[in-house]
Design goal:
Helix content: 40-55%
CATH superfamily: STAS domain
Largest sheet: 4 strands, parallel
Structural class: alpha/beta
Strand order of the largest sheet: 1-2-3-4
Number of domains: 1
CATH class: Alpha Beta
Radius of gyration: 12 Å
CATH topology: Transcription Regulator spoIIAA
Shape: globular
Distance between the termini: 15 Å
Number of strands: 4
Number of helices: 3
């Protein structure tokens, strides 16, 4: 799943809806490509945390790839670097 621009309170709700559809389809592995993602807010982090919890419950994997330094810094400061698989 490729994300671009901003993952904030507006766009995170849309992502949450899309992820709900994905989870309804069954157990799959998820890869988030953040190469074009410029910003992530606490609302975006919340959606990722919820997705990670669901993936853990389904015994499937989720990872984030190509995150820029700003997004990686947010993951580090918030502790999400220890929760998410970031490559």
């Amino acid at each position: 799943m490729t994300l671009s621009g901003r993952l904030d309170s507006v766009t995170s709700s849309k992502l949450g809806e899309e992820l709900s559809k994905v989870f309804e389809e069954g157990s799959i592995d998820l890869v988030f490509d953040f190469e074009a993602l410029d910003y992530i807010s606490s609302a975006g982090l919340r959606v990722l945390l919820t997705a990670q919890k669901k993936m853990n419950a389904l015994a499937t994997t989720m990872k984030v790839i190509n995150a820029n330094e700003n997004v990686k810094e947010v993951f580090e400061v918030t502790g999400f670097a220890g929760i998410l698989t970031i490559e």
